[in-house]
Amino acid sequence: MELSLVLTTLTIVTFISTVTSQSPIQNFVSCFSKFHEPSHSPITQVIYTPNNKTFSTILNQHIRNKRFKLGSTPKPLAIITAKSASDVQATVKCAKSNNIQIRIRSSGHDFEGYSYVSDVPFIILDMFLINGINIDIHNEVAWVESGATIGKLYYTISKTSEFYAFPAGICYSLCAGGHFSGGGYGPLTRKFGLAADNIVDAKIVDVNGKILDRKAMGEDLFWAITGGGGASFGVILSWKIKLVKIPNLVTVFDVTKTLEEGAIDLVYKWQLIASKMPDELFIIAKPRVVKNAKDGKNVVQVHFVGLFVGTNEKLLPLINKNFPELGLKSSDCHQLPWVRSTLIWNGIPTEANLKALLDEPKANETVYVKAQSDILMKPIPKEGIKAIFQKMIEDDTFFMYWIPYGGIMNKISTSAKPFPNRKGILFMIQYSNYWREDTPGTIEREINFSRSLFKFMTPYVSNSPRGAIMNYRDADIGANLPSNVTKMEISKVYGIKYFKDNFGRLVNAKTKVDPDNFFRYEQSIPTKLK
Ligand SMILES: Cc1cc2nc3c(=O)[nH]c(=O)nc-3n(C[C@H](O)[C@H](O)[C@H](O)COP(=O)(O)OP(=O)(O)OC[C@H]3O[C@@H](n4cnc5c(N)ncnc54)[C@H](O)[C@@H]3O)c2cc1C
Ligand SMILES: *[C@@H]1O[C@H](CO)[C@@H](O)[C@H](O)[C@H]1NC(C)=O
Ligand SMILES: *[C@@H]1O[C@H](CO)[C@@H](O)[C@H](O)[C@H]1NC(C)=O
Ligand SMILES: *[C@@H]1O[C@H](CO)[C@@H](O)[C@H](O)[C@H]1NC(C)=O
Ligand SMILES: *[C@@H]1O[C@H](CO)[C@@H](O)[C@H](O)[C@H]1NC(C)=O
């Protein structure tokens, strides 16, 4: 009896230790160690496993959505904080040979957490330490590594020259890795296009662990990663971008209107003119819910926030002619260097220290987020706007960005890049629901509200397909679950919404460079059926 117990225990212990020593993650670590050059940095500062004290700090540092920071959220088997291209190569080779899924994370701003969560065993390849920026002002280009934030890019450009800029997004803590590879829309897009339209070269680690530049990867793959999302194709190490010329002063304004001040008529008119303005003018309309000072009731308020690539003297007549209802006054307008204009979208005073652009969002201030997007080809009638605002006030954590189109976007072909939304679009909507409340049921209630508002919008927005913007990631439009099996029937649904006719070419590029579908996640590009 006693002996058999000892034997059983021994067997179990041996069994466990055999299994552990042969587990894919153990094999991954020993494989990685073979490639790793300790002269660069000790391996203990590159691989973090759950029993390391700092594991959760590293994990949480770049989780920007509290929905995926819960006890129940699946955790990675390991996090690799790559410090060099060779760490990235080793991660890909060793993950592939051990059949472990990887999630590639630069900033962790993905709205559905696809850069750091998976429903099947996985590791995170964290790119935040690969964040260099090298500006060659003479040739008007720069190399930007994946983990560099766009805030750092804007800051670094401005330190080199006040006559250059780069057209990318609003939130300064987004990273070049995912943001550029999904398109990258921002206040300079009407004039210069997307971030992806201004990329001239790139370095990617492919499924074999090889580093390819544009010439080596070929035009199909280069096309695919400049708008089709990088994570279906490989790991982007860096981008070579074309800087754009800008005057040393631009003009910004932020005017708020309540419903009593005619916000509905203004938003209606905004729809008619925002996409027709000169390319230099970008006016966003941002409806949000606030508490009425008088009775504490929820009301909608609309911010009209504008950037004009030019002076105040030119801006005012332009607005007075096309949008006099806004009542823009000279005192609403601020002339400043372009880099300072990037602060206004983040709610930072434009006179603040520019180093604010280098700040990391605080991990302890992460909120819950649900985002969605829509494309609008025709104006919403006034009664429609009124009904939408009426619906919005049911939830004071909800707001939208109505983002104007037109300008150069009308002139770029829909197939120039995977991002298909170009000609004839009036504006897109980014729906945002940001909440802090932790009480049970809140997540479900808030997501339900976002979904019901999204459904409410159906008659007003594009259809067949109802277009969506990949960077405003939304799992509701289709997702492969489990994420390690990519089904064409499912992928087609989100693929066509995000990429329309460009989806087929993305599938071809994917099939060619990653035929065994190693780089996969819930909304990745599928390979062609064999
Ligand atoms: C507050 C906020 C504001 C935003 N504002 C804008 C805006 O103004 N304009 C706009 O266009 N978008 C905007 N977005 C959306 C943003 O562009 C996307 O979330 C984008 O995917 C972020 O990329 P990332 O690398 O920063 O994030 P991550 O979460 O790190 O990555 C996002 C996706 O890219 C992949 N990825 C990341 N790095 C790499 C890499 N090196 N190689 C291959 N794949 C990689 C990830 O695996 C994931 O699929 C905003 C998002 C937030 C949260
Ligand atoms: C992680 O844990 C291992 C063993 O548990 C240890 O050798 C290593 O130093 C730790 N690394 C860090 C960065 O804490
Ligand atoms: C996908 O993951 C599940 C769960 O870990 C596993 O059982 C299954 O074998 C995997 N399938 C493939 C094709 O890797
Ligand atoms: C987060 O931490 C910072 C210090 O790093 C502190 O100033 C701030 O108040 C904290 N915020 C919250 C919401 O706890
Ligand atoms: C959310 O919506 C689902 C489906 O419509 C419903 O069953 C559920 O009760 C809702 N939950 C909350 C908290 O409102």
TrEMBL record:
Molecular function GO terms recorded:
FAD binding; oxidoreductase activity
Sorted UniProt keywords: Disulfide bond, FAD, Flavoprotein, Glycoprotein, Oxidoreductase, Signal
What domain of life does the native source organism fall in? Eukaryota
| Matching InterPro entries | BBE, FAD-bd_PCMH, FAD-bd_PCMH-like_sf, FAD-bd_PCMH_sub1, FAD-bd_PCMH_sub2, Oxid_FAD_bind_N, Oxy_OxRdtase_FAD_BS
Domain FAD-binding PCMH-type positions:
72-246
What are the recorded Gene Ontology BP terms? cannabinoid biosynthetic process
As cofactor, the record names: FAD
Signal sequence extent:
1-21
Q: Which family is annotated?
A: Belongs to the oxygen-dependent FAD-linked oxidoreductase family.
Which PANTHER family does the record cross-reference, listed alphabetically?
OS08G0158400 PROTEIN
Name of the protein in question: Berberine bridge enzyme-like 3
Ranked from the top, the taxonomy reads: Eukaryota, Viridiplantae, Streptophyta, Embryophyta, Tracheophyta
